Amino acid sequence: MVRTSLQDITSSGVTLGYNGTTNYTDLFDEDDLVPVVLRTLLWVGGIVVITMTLSLALGQLLNARFPGRRVVRWAVVVPWAASVLMTALIWKWMLDNYSGLVNRVLLDLHLIDEPVNWLAHPGQAMLWMMWVAVFVSLPFTSFVILAGLQTIPEDVYEAARVDGASAIRTYFGITLPLLRPAILIASIINVINVFNSFPIIWAMTAGGPGNDTDTTTTFMYKLAFYDQHVGESGAMAVVNFALILVMVLFYLRAARWREEVR
């Protein structure tokens, strides 16, 4: 990847030689680069925060004892086991402004007066794609949280109950602190997966209209296959890798992961 970013490569894959930092210069001269990077950071931050918040609640539910718990656990796995591409396409069809289920339901409930072309407006499209990304990320994250919950000794909770701790104090004083390793792992994996997410955006909007819903991953694809700038796309891939690395390192520092190791 780094080697490609430093070479002059034709659209047919023929390497013409060393290109120095020209590909990086061309990349940073792209007018769409800054908006794409900022949109990517918003995309990653929003999805990971929402996914982790919902997964904490869903993990607690899956850990509770109730009739049919095994069936519910299997049902939660389905969005993760299904093809991400097909899930994105199904949501795209559901959001169709003429025959989509979403518009039909909202019209029947009199929440909208006329069908809305949700994916034609960049802001609305991004929100829907973020929802789909959360939808497919929830199962894995919830089961990581569930695994973390099942490692917490029951006698710790018994001691808290004997001391008269309320449910809220027990959760914030015992459960969350002991879940930190699971939260750390789930967050890092989600950051990497969401940062590199391609099928959802490509299937639903292809980064359009224009580049208004592109993230760094779809933007580098367009550079390579639409603009035929393979080397520049390689430079974007290196920048994308660096952004992921920086975000993970910042998160590890904020989470004080070394304390968990000790």
UniProtKB/TrEMBL annotation:
Main subcellular localisation: membrane
SUPFAM superfamilies: MetI-like
PROSITE patterns noted in UniProt: ABC_TM1 (PS50928)
Bilayer disposition of the protein: Multi-pass membrane protein
One of the record's GO cellular component terms: plasma membrane
BP terms from Gene Ontology: transmembrane transport
Compartments it resides in: Cell membrane
CDD domains in alphabetical order: TM_PBP2
Keywords: Cell membrane, Membrane, Transmembrane, Transmembrane helix, Transport
InterPro entries in the record: ABC_transporter_permease, MetI-like, MetI-like_sf
Domain ABC transmembrane type-1, chain residue ranges per copy: 37-251
Segments crossing the lipid bilayer: 41-62, 74-94, 128-149, 170-192, 233-252
Protein family: Belongs to the binding-protein-dependent transport system permease family.
PANTHER family according to UniProt: ABC TRANSPORTER PERMEASE PROTEIN, DIACETYLCHITOBIOSE UPTAKE SYSTEM PERMEASE PROTEIN NGCF
Protein name: Sugar ABC transporter permease
